Amino acid sequence: MKNLIIFLLLIPFVSFSQNKDNACDYISKYLKEKPLECIDKSKLQNNEEIYQFFKWSSFRQDYLIRVERKRDLKTLVVKKIFKSSYDQETGNYQPQRFEILKQKRLTNSEFGEFKHLLYKHGFWKKNDYHIKSLCNDGSGILVYALKKDYLITMSNGNCSPGNEYLYYLYEQISEIFGL
What domains sit in the chain, N to C, each tagged with a CATH number? Predict the structure, then answer.
């Protein structure tokens, strides 16, 4: 299931093969993100944590929200991910790219509100949260979260209803950060 979600997120690269190394290469090279699934978790300090929320769609643009705490520095990065495309009129190929929509340091209050939201909804207790896909071409949320020696991944499959847990959580996170 996780490989299907990753594949759908990475549709623009037809030659993409679904193994962990290629997914890590894609995430680091094309999205300029830390591939949480691929980094050495033991090297993180006890007070470091990273959250990545991918909102993907088969036909629309994808988005990434990353919230990170590294020692006393708390940051938010929001990216819009444009799929590769081909303009039939001009014959031009537009490779996949991303645009940083928001990048800022978070206050202790903002980060505290984010952490409270996660706690309130039992985020770290849902480490096996994966919903079976209901269709082949829809949308979904893929989440990676990392603390010292602990990585969780979550996905709501494909075509989950709008009131599903990860959609709701994504909406609440967007509200907290004014996205």
Answer: 2-176 (3.30.1560)
